[in-house]
């Protein structure tokens, strides 16, 4: 047990933590780590930017001032508060709870920005969860407009807290607020940002391994950010064997469902393709409910049952059981998902992402150049990593059809002020 604690301490020292004589650990000044938080460009801190928000939109739950006077609201701020200290952040409300972490909405007393506090309780006999060490170590090195930003890490004997930029909703909530499928233009913006984030981490040889709408955060202006890197892994070269128990069932590719463990970036591409369909149609692409074999059956109904001639090596995968296979012919995606035909290039892009054979799936980098995105400004391809696509003039999220309908039906301007979009 002492060896485990020592390993955890060493791991967090590599994250920029130092051991204090009290037994607690705190984050060292970010000036001694690459790309310090305080040197990041202003667009990273889009979650509060009080004056900017108040000039762009009416009061909402993303505004920490809640309509109060600026001077009154910032009385709780203190100059000189350090990073890595729990007293530097105020807890506002609980946002959600998972199997090993609880997430709170908070506010920084250092600079007045809203933050998300991911609190991981540490059991005395187990120490720091390995998934937390992995998430912290990976996110510390990722600086991109479409990756959630890790501001700070706080560790005490009882808990480990990751301080993230606050992004007030996720794609799952956004889609539930706009049922029936999203506006094609907005889907194009969301998909471009998703693929842009994936291209970045794949270039860093990192696999997310848990793509789903709940892990794609959406800011109030439409910025999409990959989050929850607890299952992410650094992909070694040459490839090595990984676990097949990754990715939520509905977004898990058929090769992994069949037991493949030598996957690469194609794992994330399948998940992104499923999310693409879900945004268009308004419901999951492959929604199996009981086990992996039902999930596979739903996939075979669309892409066809695989065989050695179309997918070399498929018969050697652990879960490939001929007696459990029902033969299906592949179908045109447009016949299965009718909204694919309403956007130029959408069906072709979906078919390139949702290939059964993983080696045939399009890469995130190539997908960004697909004709589906040809109507977007060409400047998007020249943006620095840390620049949001919404810094390009004239680019903005459009109102969803559902919002326009509700606004027209109620005929109330005041109600629109409380909408998130």
From TrEMBL:
Compartment(s) where it occurs, according to its Swiss-Prot or TrEMBL record: Cell membrane
Top-rank EC class of the record's enzyme: transferase
> Where does the UniProt entry say this protein principally localizes?
membrane
Q: How does it sit in the membrane?
A: Peripheral membrane protein
InterPro entries from the UniProt entry: CDK (IPR050108), Kinase-like_dom_sf (IPR011009), Prot_kinase_dom (IPR000719), Protein_kinase_ATP_BS (IPR017441), Ser/Thr_kinase_AS (IPR008271)
* PROSITE patterns cross-referenced by the UniProt entry: PROTEIN_KINASE_ATP, PROTEIN_KINASE_DOM, PROTEIN_KINASE_ST
Q: Would I find Cell cycle among this entry's keywords?
A: yes
Which EC number(s) does UniProt give? 2.7.11.22
Biological processes per GO annotation: cell division; Wnt signaling pathway
Give me the Gene Ontology terms describing cellular component.
cytosol; nucleus; plasma membrane
Q: Provide a Gene Ontology MF annotation, just one.
A: cyclin binding
> Which positions bind ATP?
118
- Known catalysed reaction(s)? L-threonyl-[protein] + ATP = O-phospho-L-threonyl-[protein] + ADP + H(+); L-seryl-[protein] + ATP = O-phospho-L-seryl-[protein] + ADP + H(+)
Q: Where is the Protein kinase domain?
A: 89-373
Q: How does it assemble?
A: Interacts with ccny; ccny mediates its recruitment to the plasma membrane and promotes phosphorylation of lrp6.
The protein's job, in short, is: Serine/threonine-protein kinase involved in the control of the eukaryotic cell cycle, whose activity is controlled by an associated cyclin. Acts as a cell-cycle regulator of Wnt signaling pathway during G2/M phase by mediating the phosphorylation of lrp6, leading to the activation of the Wnt signaling pathway.
Q: Which family does it belong to?
A: Belongs to the protein kinase superfamily. CMGC Ser/Thr protein kinase family. CDC2/CDKX subfamily.
Protein known as: Cyclin-dependent kinase 14
Name the source organism. Answer: Xenopus laevis
The gene name on file is cdk15.L
């Amino acid at each position: 047990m002492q060896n485990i604690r020592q390993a955890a301490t060493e791991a967090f020292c590599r994250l920029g933590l130092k051991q204090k004589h009290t037994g607690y650990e705190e984050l060292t000044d970010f000036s001694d780590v690459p790309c310090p938080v305080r040197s990041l460009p202003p667009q990273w801190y889009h979650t509060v930017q009080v004056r900017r928000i108040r000039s762009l939109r009416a009061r909402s739950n993303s505004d920490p001032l809640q309509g109060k006077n600026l001077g009154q609201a910032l009385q709780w701020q203190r100059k000189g508060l350090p990073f890595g200290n729990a007293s530097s952040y105020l807890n506002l409300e609980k946002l959600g709870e998972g199997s090993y972490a609880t997430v709170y909405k908070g506010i920084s007393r250092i600079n007045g920005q809203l933050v998300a506090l991911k609190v991981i309780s540490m059991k005395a006999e187990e120490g720091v969860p390995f998934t937390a060490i992995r998430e912290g170590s990976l996110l510390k090195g990722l600086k991109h407009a479409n990756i959630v930003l890790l501001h700070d890490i706080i560790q005490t004997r009882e808990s480990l807290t990751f301080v993230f930029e606050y992004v007030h909703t996720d794609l799952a909530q956004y889609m539930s607020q706009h049922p029936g499928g999203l506006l094609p233009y907005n889907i194009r913006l969301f998909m471009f940002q998703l693929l842009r984030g994936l291209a970045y981490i794949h270039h860093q040889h990192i696999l997310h391994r848990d793509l789903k709408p709940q892990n794609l955060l959406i800011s109030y202006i439409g910025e999409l950010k990959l989050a929850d890197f607890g299952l992410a892994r650094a992909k070694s070269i040459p490839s090595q064997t990984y676990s097949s128990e990754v990715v939520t069932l509905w977004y898990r590719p058929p090769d992994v469902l069949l037991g493949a463990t030598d996957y690469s970036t194609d794992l994330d591409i399948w998940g992104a393709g499923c999310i693409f369909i879900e945004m268009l149609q308004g419901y999951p692409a492959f929604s199996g409910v009981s086990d992996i074999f039902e999930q596979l059956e739903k996939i075979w109904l669309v892409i066809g049952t695989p065989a050695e001639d179309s997918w070399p090596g498929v018969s050697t995968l652990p879960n490939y059981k001929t007696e459990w296979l029902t033969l299906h012919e592949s179908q045109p995606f447009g016949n299965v998902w009718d909204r694919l035909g309403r956007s130029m290039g959408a069906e072709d892009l979906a078919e390139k992402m949702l290939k059964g054979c993983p080696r045939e799936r399009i890469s995130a980098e190539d997908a960004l150049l697909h004709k589906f995105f040809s109507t977007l400004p060409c400047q998007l391809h020249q943006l620095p990593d840390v620049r949001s696509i919404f810094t390009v003039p004239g680019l903005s999220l459009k109102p969803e059809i559902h919002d326009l309908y509700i606004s027209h039906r109620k005929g109330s301007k005041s109600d629109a002020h409380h909408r998130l979009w």
